[in-house]
Amino acid sequence: MLPYVDLVIGSEEDAADVLNIHAGRLHIEQGFLDIESYPNVAKMIIQQFPNVNKVAINLRESISASYNKYSFSNNEI
Questions:
Q1: Based on the structure, what is the number of domains in the chain?
Q2: Confidence at 11, pLDDT banded by 50, 70, 90
């Protein structure tokens, strides 16, 4: 599907699991996300799929099974 879309929304885990693009020093279990590397992840996605012109990487912090914080990385490429 990715060759046919112009907007990609996903997490750093999605980029790693589906595209084998890794977001720096990722340690989800320890609560560490290397969000400074997200613009590079977005650039690699755009390089791999020229139709894509926007990438949004979501950030989710699980507080408990029923409560999560959800946001997006807002870095411009």
A1: 1
A2: confident
